[in-house]
Amino acid sequence: MKKDCIYLDNNATTKVDSQVVEAMLPFFSEYYGNPSSMHVFGGQVGKAVSKAREQMAALLGAEESEIIFTSGGTEGDNAAIRSALLAQPEKRHIITSQVEHPAVLAQCKQLESKGYTVTYLSVNRQGQLDLDELEASLTGNTALVSIMYANNETGVVFPIEQIGLRVKSSGALFHVDAVQAVGKIPMNMKTSTIDMLTMSGHKIHAPKGIGALYVRRGVRFRPMVIGGGQERGRRSGTPNVPAIIALGQAAELELMHLEEATKRERKMRDRLEQTLIANIPDCEINGYGSERLPNTTSIGFKYIEGEAILFGLNQYGICASSGSACSSGSLEPSHVLRAMGLPYTILHGSIRFSLCRYTTDDEIDAVIAVMPGIIERLRALSPFTDDKAAWLQEHEQTLLGVKS
Ligand SMILES: Cc1ncc(COP(=O)(O)O)c(C=O)c1O
Ligand code: FES
């Protein structure tokens, strides 16, 4: 495995910060007590967990009592959706969007088979929701609206507070998957319309398998993991103390770096985009013109395959991705880009670069230097010309076996 790679796949996962590793290490073999124990040895671990909860709450502008530690984004999303439905058994309708992460979409699909009705809001070519469509979909039967803060593939940011105001006036609960937004967009739950918010540690330089779910005080929470009653009865199981300490430390660092790091990342991201667009014909930025995360760019290069571009980049030690980490490896084109109605050729030729606070200008320069050559070589080999690509687009539905 290359250690010296140029890592531009931070939306898939991030490197654990060395200060984070340092903070968690003593909790493996030195302070290994159970935070629920009555003795002082366990009690001091309990205090460290409380500090981590404070650090997490500070990043979200929340109260400590509103933070539940989870195993990550997927659990947070699952737990929030289930809780919202269990708390309002008389309501049988859910609203979400077509571009959510599978952690939300798979849950909704399963609920449909159990008799729930789910509305999947559409997005336009820029990846934006239509707030009128949302308003028209809300009914007295709507239990929950679950919408992501920012999209993991395109970085497109949804107008969460405008959505929340509409949700609140309908009486439904509002859950937000903020896995990609926490640490990149300032959050203040005290002035927000959000009832529940999911975050995940491994996107903010903490380890994998730890995260937090924010549940607004006063919102009835029905736990998904039940047992010994840890996390004030909201998530049972002996907590993963070292990972929680790590998450707290990572949250503190994110808050400290947020303003300056996102400014730097945006500058580098914009330079990367502008230079590639200027130097390579027939490419476009997915979600351009929409508000986007400062660290993310998804670029479609016509007439070639995203996987082939990644292979080319790999030879220079550059890590990027052709969609979400969970679905890359499958040949299905991205459900996000498809929902945006992108033409066949862009759909298949899209790759994502995602930066972090460790990204340097030299790394961006390296990508800028090799990309035109990679694209040119692949296009020279491509069997698709303009005309063939147009034919493919026309027959896209048949080729993909999509029902429509
Ligand atoms: C938007 C979004 N939601 C949820 C998840 C799942 O988080 P986790 O990997 O912590 O389960 C991810 C991770 O890629 C994500 O990008
Ligand atoms: S699990 Fe991370 S993008 Fe799907």
TrEMBL record:
Reactions performed catalytically:
(sulfur carrier)-H + L-cysteine = (sulfur carrier)-SH + L-alanine
Keywords attached to this Swiss-Prot or TrEMBL record, sorted alphabetically, are: Iron, Iron-sulfur, Metal-binding, Pyridoxal phosphate, Transferase
The UniProt similarity line reads: Belongs to the class-V pyridoxal-phosphate-dependent aminotransferase family. NifS/IscS subfamily.
One Pfam family recorded for the sequence: Aminotran_5
Q: Which GO terms describe its biological process?
A: amino acid metabolic process
Q: What does this protein do?
A: Catalyzes the removal of elemental sulfur atoms from cysteine to produce alanine.
> What is the organism of origin for this protein?
Brunnivagina elsteri CCALA 953
Q: State the source organism's domain of life.
A: Bacteria
Q: What is its EC number?
A: 2.8.1.7
Q: Is this entry keyworded Transferase?
A: yes
In the UniProt record, the gene name given for this protein reads nifS
> What InterPro entries would the database entry show?
Aminotrans_V_dom (IPR000192), Aminotrans_V_PyrdxlP_BS (IPR020578), Cys_deSase_NifS_bac/arc (IPR017772), Cysteine_dSase (IPR016454), PyrdxlP-dep_Trfase (IPR015424), PyrdxlP-dep_Trfase_major (IPR015421), PyrdxlP-dep_Trfase_small (IPR015422)
Question: What PROSITE patterns does the record point to?
Answer: AA_TRANSFER_CLASS_5
Protein name, as recorded: Cysteine desulfurase
All copies of the Aminotransferase class V domain together span 6-367
**Required co-factors:** pyridoxal 5'-phosphate
Binding partners and assembly:
Homodimer.
Molecular function as annotated in GO = cysteine desulfurase activity; iron-sulfur cluster binding; metal ion binding; pyridoxal phosphate binding
